[in-house]
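## retry 2 of 3
previous attempt timed out at serialization; input unchanged, resubmitting
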Amino acid sequence: MSKSLRTHFLKEFPKALNDGTAAVFVGAGVSMAAGYPSWATLLKEIGEELGVNSNDVQDLTALAQWSIRETGSASRVRDVILKEIKPQKPIPPSVEILARLPVRHIWTTNYDLLIERAFDEIHRPYQSIASGPALARRVPMRGATRLYKMHGCVNSIDEIVISTDDYELYRSRRGQFLPLFQAHLTGMSMLFIGISFTDPNIKHVLSLIRESFIDAPPEHFAIVRPPQRSDFTNKKTYEARLTQHRLWAKDLQRYGLKAVEVERYDEIPELLKEIERRLAAKRIWVSGSWPLNVQSDEAPRIYQFAEKLGKRIADTDRDLVTGAGVLVGSASLQGFVSALRKGAEWDIDRRLTARPFPQPLEGQQPDREEWTALRTELAKHAGAVVFVGGMKVEDGKEKPEIAKGVLEEFEIAKKSGAYLLPIAATGGAAVIIHDLLKGSSMPFKGANAQRPSDKELKALFNPDLLKTDQGQTELLNMVFTILDRLHVVS
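## retry succeeded, writing output
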């Protein structure tokens, strides 16, 4: 694929996901990657019974129709589909990543349960809609993703779309899907994965979009694999197919579709993973704490800096992840929310991920397992963790000590693959984290970078910068220069 189109795709589609204006269409190619048969393979046995080679039939829905006519019912075709599609196959990486992306609308013509199982594995809520009347039902849980199974589901085998009759009567039997699909194609950026654009329903909706937007159709993307020389034994056949592909890819632009080409199928999860990384790079977890009940010059400085940090996160269009740690958490949250309110933002609920730790009553011990679970959840949301301070005063003690909870957050974030950015100038656990990272084998450059360079770590370890407004601004500038790199593909 062209580098400029790849760059454009990796910029625009994550933005649409972050804004809540993205949808995904999953086609048969994704199911085939999991080990399910292609249409030709699926209907091979049916074809043999009719004396036809399924590989020689251009319209496989017609093959199903012929079987129904010869046998007098659709039972034979449905039995074959049930036998081949019902068994659970391993969930492919592309579907696992898709289940983690913040997409609220997924369309598919596949019968299998790969997407549902991927959502179940991470306990993410969804509503599977396999019939027209089901569209009218309310989503069972707030925030649930809607999965539209346009051609039905293997769990309701008698209602699947399979034959020519089913396609020709689609508007009368399942026509409720079409206006919603058209609305999503009109108002959202849709990513097509593993799809064949010969599907008559999809072609029909795309033609409606073409009629509505003659000059400037909405922008969508399709990840496609052009023919490769290794696919063919005959060079002439390969060149002919490649020419057809190039003409087809250009023609997709009439519908606003841009073909993002990959040479190998395993590049698809790599692209989706990059989208996930870019989304995560916008979510910053501010980890840290500082005791309130100790009189010192450090506490006001830490609070002032953490508040400025939260404000800068908001002003740079990033999202805040917080466990509301003592002083540092409240200060960064205050700066973040204040900046959003001044900017007339109304989507604080979308840009803020907060998991305040439940505090025990006096004389009781905190639930350490619950705190670890909350820290693990925060790490899943964050692409980068900025460590500020990290001190606390244990009950019955006078002197502050290193906050072990912040060190635990470091280990959890490290395990999750988050970018680790300690501001050692703020003292506490941030200094220990600085020492652990400096000179370590963890990568500090490239797409897999997980820490600043040793030079940058040293620059962030200057306590004098925390003492003045100018110094704090210099610290913040260094922090966000580093964070800006996370949006760039190496």
